[in-house]
Amino acid sequence: MTWEIWTFYLVTVLALMSTPGPSQLLMLSNSGAYGFRRALSTAAGDLSANALQMLAAGLGLAAIIAASGAALAVIKWAGVAYLIWLGIRMIRRARPDDPELSETRPAVSLQNLWMQGFLTSAANPKAVVFFAALFPQFLSADGAFWPQFLILSATYIAMDGLFLSAYGFSASWIAARFRGTARVWIERLGGGFMIGAAILLGFKSIAQR
User: Fold this and answer.
1) Does residue 157 belong to any structural domain of this protein?
2) Is 187 domain-assigned?
């Protein structure tokens, strides 16, 4: 793989990530509610799912997953329902008389935040097909497959991690400067972002039929 091909791949991925998706909205929500440092677990969950999806694509499982229509539907809609439930719960908990809004929200387990990120990304298992279609465009037939594949995968994960961190840090910075009633709306907005992530996943599911 030449530097020119890698640079073109970099620009392509940058273009693909320019529009916020479900994972970015979830990162915004969790960073605003629990702080940027804890929300990094959400990003780690998302990237873990991406890594597994890339590995599946590299192992040639794309065709098998694409053929499993029933399994795809169950996984995707379970993820949609889970995110909607989380968003509604966050909105319902955001009350002006809640003493927790005057201080930092109580810590949610890192495992819980990680699982939210993982499920949000895993709820779109057709990402395997996406990676299986994207990567071959930048692979050279003259080079060994796995080294090139690992470079493309690592580049994608690094860029996705930077995007998620940028969204999360911005949300945390804004939330830290609001207290009291204003923070109620921050909480409600976070819940709205989470529900928005679910709606995006639902639309993607319908569009892929």
Assistant:
1) yes
2) yes
Indicate whether 66 belongs to any domain.
yes
Q: Which domain holds residue 195?
A: 32-207
Two structure tokens written together for 73 = 């539907």
In a domain, 2, yes or no: no
Tens digit of pLDDT at every position of the chain (209 positions): 788 889 888 888 887 776 667 788 788 888 877 888 888 999 999 999 999 989 888 887 555 555 655 655 665 677 677 768 777 877 776 665 554 444 445 567 889 899 989 988 887 766 776 787 788 778 777 778 888 889 999 999 999 999 999 888 887 777 666 555 555 666 677 677 767 767 776 776 566 55
Question: DSSP secondary-structure letter at 96?
Answer: T
Q: How many CB atoms lie within 10 A of CB 86?
A: 23
36: helix, strand or coil: helix
3-state secondary structure at position 129: helix
